[in-house]
Design goal:
3-stranded antiparallel sheet; 468 residues; Cytochrome p450; alpha+beta; binds protoporphyrin IX containing FE; 4-stranded mixed sheet
Length: 468
Amino acid sequence: MPTLKIPPGPRRLPLIGTLHRLIGKDGVHQTLRNLSETYGPAMLLHFGAQPVLVISSTEMAAEVLKTHDQKMCTRPYSKSTNRLSYNYKDIAFAPHNDHWRDMRKVMVSEFLGAKRMRLYNRVMENEMEDMVRSLSSMSSSRITVNLDDMLFNLVNDVVCKVAFGKTYRENTFNGKTMKEIVDESVVMLGGSFADIFPTFGWIFDRLSGWDRRLEKCVNDFDGFLEMILDDNREGKTNEHGNDFVSDCSDVLNRDEMKALMMNVYEGAFDTTAITIVWAMSEIVKNPRVMRKLQNEIRSYVGKQSKVRESDITKMAYLKMVVKETLRLHPPAGFLIGRECVSHCQIGGYDILPGTQVMVSTVGIGRDPKIWKESPTEFHPERFENIQVEFGGKHFEMIPFGGGRRACPGYNLAVSTAELTIANLLNVFNWETPDGGKNQDLDMREQGNWLIARKTPLCLVPIKHNSQD
Ligand code: HEM
């Protein structure tokens, strides 16, 4: 048998593998980027006994997501994904099998299909009107707005109304809001000792209280979702009959329904809100971009205070701004983990079955081989000459992944971001509070899987004079 060519990576220590190399003040996402600079775009790590391939270039990503997609499109098992997904009844964490395929079809046709999008557009337009009205009242007294909170609430309200018939933002279960429960579940999804030390890690999980914490989280999540389903059955929701849950109750059993609702909560809210917050940060930090974008938006909508979905199609620069945001600040720093099911070669290296694969969206969006002109700078005009679409077939930037497991919600996310940004900039100019310079806005990042701003984005809306 010929010798295997194993990808380069740091030296392994007994038992812990290369875990010691992940410890540092920078967070996992930045630490892995630093390590990739030393070991290259296909790097092999070991989390305890578990081999993990880390991919950080366009070329290697295309090999994983296109050439070998079939061998790399299943998801690894972990205790938390198993419990939170009702034993893999969902889409995002489920292994690649017929059930995953059926559930994905339901999501695409029932949640993301034309009928639901009509409801989505109606709900969005109403929410935009409310947002502009409330910002206008703040603007007269120069009140500082926390855009992180405002935009999370906006995305939550729109998606929840469409998916569940009501916003559920103020509701609690066991004293916790859904936001608190989702935040806790994201911590749990980070993994347990048993995931990396299968023979004895379960003892640590039990003794450290991790198992109990997971069960409490699953219980809270489940209780909240049950409450939504009960409201729905009893007709207590505003959009009753039009929302996703009402339409799917006959097609899916209760666990399948809850598993899909969990995917919507985990996948749609933070990601979309973080995208809009990063876009607003870059726009405010770059006055030239703000002016150019406002000129474009205002030239299409005139003195109207509301930008509609139908106006957006004409706004080429707005689309470039959103693309550039997703290139430079993909909200999910890594794709959801994959697992290799049979031997294949990536970049000429042998990858063995059972190897987990982490693909860095940030590394790829800033790959200097592809993005030759100042890859770490925000420059939307670069898309005048580069054709990149999000459907999962282009690999120059992959904020939504690619191949069979690519994000099915990308259209919804992009159009929500475009419409919200257009409405925020049509009526208002934005300034940093306390006389600070917009160009000095803090742009530090934070997070391991979701990469958000380190400090909340707080800005003052100033009503544009043509909108008085
Ligand atoms: C800016 C917003 C969003 C970003 C950045 C994002 C990003 C991602 C990424 C990176 C993946 C993993 C892809 C892979 O493994 O190749 C994913 C999967 C997924 N996303 Fe999104 N997403 C967003 C919005 C949404 C929305 C609005 C939905 C709503 C339905 C959604 C539903 C899903 C689902 C169900 C999966 C699992 C797909 C599968 O495993 O087959 N996402 N998303």
